[in-house]
Structure formats: structure tokens, C-alpha cells
Amino acid sequence: MTDLQTIDKEDQAARIKDLRKQIDYHNHRYYALDQPEISDAEYDKIFRELVDLENTHPELITADSPTQRVGFAPIEKFLPFGHEVPLLSLENAMNTEEALDFDRRVHKLLGVGGNIEYVAELKMDGLAVELVYEDGALIGAGTRGDGFTGEDVSQNVKTIRSVPWRLLGPPSQRALPVKLAVRGEVFIEKRDFDKLNDQRAERGEPVFANPRNAAAGSLRQLDPSITAGRPLRAFFYGIGTLISEKEFVTQLEMLDQLKRWGLPVNPESRLCHGIEQALSYYEKLAEEREYLPYEIDGVVIKVNNLACQRQLGEKSRSPRWAIALKFSPDEAQTHVLDIGVNVGRTGILTPVAFLNPVVVGGVTVKRATLHNIDEIQRKDIRKGDAVLVHRAGEVIPEVIEVIKSKRTENEEPFKMPPNCPSCGAPVVRLPDEAFHRCVNRNCPAQIKGSIVHFASRDAMNINGLGEQIVSRFIDEGIIGTVSDLYRLRMEDLQNLPGFGQKSARNLLDTINTSKQTTLSRFLYSLGISHVGAFIADLLARSFGDIDKVRSARVEQLLQVQGIGEKVANALAAYFSNPDNRRLVDELLDIGFVIDNPPPTRPVETGFWSGKTVVFTGALSSMTRQEAGEAVTAKGARVTDSVSKKTGVVVAGADPGSKLAKAQKLGVRIMQEDEFIGMLNGHSLATEA
Length: 688
Ligand code: IVH
Prior knowledge:
By secondary structure, the chain is of the alpha+beta class. A hairpin with a 2-residue loop joins β13 (348-360) and β14 (363-369). The site of 2-(butylsulfanyl)adenosine (IVH) has 13 residues, from β3 and β8.
């Protein structure tokens, strides 16, 4: 070997070392701290450089190189992995009352009064693991198993990028423990889970039922290179064995030390003074958990002081110093008592399952939507079936699947009725539609649905006029169309049981004030097929006048950017029907005052077109109102709350919780500078 080659090799060895250090550092920033410093592309670049260099010099590959995370040789079976200190499980509290019992027990056993200091941690819904580090190096990892002996999944755990192979610490190494057995949970984030399942479905492989199953299935692979390809993550929350100069006084200090050793620790843990604070945190999480990037199934409440933990000790399978306060599950089993159909305002018949009442996600569910006939046939849902029901957040409860093993063969398949259950008119299914419809335009169920829609929040916003009251008014024969609402008088309402003088007056006042409205609300409230709030707004801004909208021909409607054939045809059909024309005339005669927005120039197709925008915090260069008008003029829609459908959140000074929600949902966030840049039609981000 020439001198030159030697020097070259030395350089390359140094570069390899440097790259490994960089990669370890960025892994830690990304997974443990959640604060990446470089883009994914930059990361991939240095990773590839390392792989290339190692390929050129295989003799320089070391077992601890980050490239070695991607695959070890498959094994034949898992070896047992013993836990020096048994990995206990947690006692569950199914409601706040049981958590209060826990607090009373802790007080009694410790013999103290006042508030106990607790740490509330998220209960990650994955699978438990224990990792063993000796002198800072990861030497093994095992699953929980029966708590005493699990399976040795060391090679698989080493493929998880958020798991450090070496603990971080000052070079003296005295700061690193001689031995550390650390416990935590391996899981998969919801988005990664969806992606993984999409991939599997594409390849024709069976999909995982939920992220927990996916995480467990991925960790328990005999071939570690399969595990390496799965998006596993981990959070650590406790210690089994510790031989170290380090000592901690509290659970929080311990979590903090784990973090400093480079282990990923969930940042959502909270110190709580007293059980009440822990319970408030639980309530908050019950509402917000759908926005977390991963699934949790409860909150673990732990006594913060470690000396108190020791004093409280353990029962045979669970510690006395902690309790898992579970969320009510958002799935439950029940029976389909019957299957009926609901007729909506557009005449669509939606099959509905009437269920044996069951508590799901904290509320009693009696019915679930079955969407349409194809869905029922696909899931083969029959009257009498045992089913799994799901309910999340505000979403309408759904039947997920039939529990076929419980079939008795007395179940009855469902057939769409040939006649509308509300009016008896024939039911049809148009060739390219998934739905069945009632053909009678005067069907009482359709009338009821259209009046409820007319009164709803984004339409005429008539507070107090919900489904039940509308049904009653129709049954009493005091209304038959929306225009009848404006003819209601005190005498009509006063005689109705349950209506006092005051509530009747309030309702009439609200109905009366709704006559002062905007063109977009007015159009939306008519309930024209395919005309939602967004399209109504588009029409209002493009035509600026109800007469222009109702006399527009299909070709004119199609001129509007954002309006396609479906909407244009639906509008033309609606306004060519004499009943509908009469209704609009009647409303105008009644004294509707429709605020016509100044017609704007045609809606642009630029960045803002069709995007939903939310503002939070104060802007320094304009008011929120002005900013809202500016983006609306460019085709965006401004809303108040952040959801998955939000396109952009503009964050000014002192942003509120909307910003956090946007971050959690991965919605694009713009600071004021970037926002102004985008308003003026250029992107600062790409200029920088
Ligand atoms: S502490 C000795 N804290 O819940 C107490 N467990 O039955 C050990 N889990 O599968 C458990 N998040 O892995 C604790 N923040 C957390 C947790 C947590 C999830 C899991 C644990 C085990 C189960 C306990």
C-alpha cells in the first residue's frame, strides 16, 4: 500500500467516525428531543455517505455503526430474557371515583393529610420492553412476558432509531450508570400506522387492526431486518435495576435523567399537586387525545416521591404507588336489535342500526349509521348480529364489524324497503349512485330535514330550532315549509306543551332576526344538492346578487373557478323547479334583507384558492379582519377552529391553543412574514 493510499484511508476512517457521530447526534435530536436540526434529505445524504464509505472499507465497519441498525441475521426462535426486578403491571381505575379511592388509600398508607404530589404520565398504547445498559452500552432488550421472563428481542430493539446504543454522558463516564435496566413502551404513531397499512394493502398483505398490534407484530419478528423497516418508536418511563452513583428523589427527576442519558421520554408528563389536578389533566387529555400523534389508553398517576413509592411498596402484580386511569374505550360490543332507514333532507335513505344501548367513548350509543346498502353487504351486517361499534369524538357511531363467531343463523339480512318509510312513495337507486332515494319532493321526512338544515348554524342560525322542535311543529301542522317559520305567531306556540311565554318569545325573535342575512348563508340554507357553505360563498362572491344566481345558466355557472358540472347542473335544476322558485320569492316577500357582498374579481387559482385558513394571535401589519378579507379575496375560506382539513394556520404574536393543535395535526403553519409574502404572491420559504 502506498503512503498516499494510507493517508487516504486514514482520512476516510476519520470521516466515517465523524459521520457516525453526526448520525447518532441527529437521531437523538429527531427521536428523543423531537427537535430535528436538519432536513430528512440532509440526514439521508450523510447516512448514504456513511454506507458508501463502509462499502468501500468493509473492514472499518463496527458493530455500533448506525448502519448496522438495518438488519441482523434472522434467528430461529426467541431466547428467554429474565427481568432482575419483575416488570409489574398496573391496577386500572375505570372512572374518576376509583382514582379518588386510590388517592384515599395512598393517604391512609402513608399516614399523611393534604395534597399528595403525583406525576401524571400518558399511558402509551404499545407494548412494554426493558432495555439493559452496562457502562452506558446497550447490551440487551426483552419484552415483558409474564413479568419475570420475557423474550429476548435485543436485535430487533437495536433497529429502533430512537433507542440509543450508548447512553449520553460526560466523557468521564462516571456519570453513566454501571448498570441500568430501563422500562418503556414501544409504539407506532398513527400516521406511520396508516402508511404501513396502505403499503401492506397495496402488496396484498393483511393489514394490522390497530397501531398496538402493528407495534407488537413488528417487534416480535424473528428476522430483525423486517423490524428495521417498521416505523417503531419508544418512550421510557421507569427503572428496574440501577447501579449508579446517581440517585433521584422524585419520579420527575428520574424521567429528567433518562432524558439526559439520551433516552426518549414523553414530554407530556405533568406534576400534579393533589389528585384533583391529576383528574383535570385526565379530562383534558380525554378530549385532546384524538389530536396526539400516537394512541394512548389512559393516564398513569404515580406518586412523585420515590421514598413514598418504596414505603407504599407492591402487591403481587402491581405497585400500590401507581394507578392507570383508563379512558372509556371507543369501541364496544353490542347487538343489532333492528335495522331501519332514515330519510334525509335530500331524500337519501340511510340505513341505521338500532343497537342494544352500550357505552362507547363515555356516552350511551343506541344507533349507528350503516351508510348505504353496499356497506351493509360488504360487512354482511344482519338484524340480530353481535357487532363491534366504534365512536370517536364528534363522529357518528359506526358498526366496524360483525362478530361472526356469535352468529346463530337466526339473523336476518337487510333489504332496502321498496317504499319510503316516511311517505310511502317509491324508492329508487340511480345508476351511478351508491344511495337509494325517495322520489317524493313533498315527503314529510325531507321537509323536516330541509327545515332543520335551514335553521342550522351555518345557515339561518336559528338557535333553539332543532330536530325535535321542528318535528313537533310539523306534527302539529303549524309549519309545512321554511317560509311558514316566518308566519308563526305567539298563539301558535303558546298552546304547545313545554313552551312558556318566554321561550316562545325568544324563538320568534330569533326567527325574525334571521331575516337579516348574507347571500352566502341564504344560498347555503336552501339545501341545494352539492352546495355546501364553501360553494355558497363562492357563488355569493362571484354573482353578488340572488337574482343573478337564480337566473344564471349552466355555462355562466361553469365560468366560476371552483364550480364544476355537478354543482352547476344541481343549481340550474334547483332554480328551474317552480316550487323552489316560489319558495325563494316567498322568503324575499317576507322581508329577507340579503347583504350582497361587493362582487370580487374572479376567484384566483393561486396558493390560497380553496384553502381553509385559521388565524391565531395578533398580526402586527394588519388586523385579523383585514387579513381574513385579503385571503378570502384570493379564494380562501376563513374558519375559527383547526381540524385536519385546515390548509394553513397563520400564527401572530401570542398564538392560542390553535397553534398547538395545528402542530399536532401537522397543519402548515405560517408566521406573519411568510404570510405577508404569500399574500403578495411569493413564497419567502423558497427565496430563503
Ligand atoms: S408504569 C410498575 N407508566 O402499561 C409499573 N406503564 O400494565 C409499571 N404503560 O404494558 C408500569 N405507559 O408498559 C407505566 N407511563 C407509563 C406507561 C405504562 C404505558 C404500560 C406498560 C404496561 C402496562 C402496565
